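Before any further analysis, we paired sequence with structure tokens, yielding the entry below:
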Amino acid sequence: MGLVVGVKMKKAYTAKQGQYLAFIYYYTRIHGRAPTEAEMQQYFQVSPPSVHQMVLTLVARGLIERTPGQARSIRLLIPREELPDLAEKVRSWGTSAQVLAP
């Protein structure tokens, strides 16, 4: 069997992972640098270990890359078109939130 060339496959991620990816995208676009884990913790109102585990998960899934020990080194590996819109403030993942469109 031959390989299919030119077929773009989207990477699967959960709704919560999508919100972290969207946050990284918008934060980087607005501030000109990647967010720190502390800034993600503050935005999502979660614990430091929760943010760190999410970062490790996103790296393992090939959605972002980073340099361990280097601040603000997170970089998205998927294009904006494959990201969800960022919910304004997410307090509960089970409820709807206002969405920020690009």
About this structure: The beta strands are 64-65, 75-76, 86-87, 99-100. The domain at 15-87 is CATH 1.10.10.10 (Arc Repressor Mutant, subunit A).
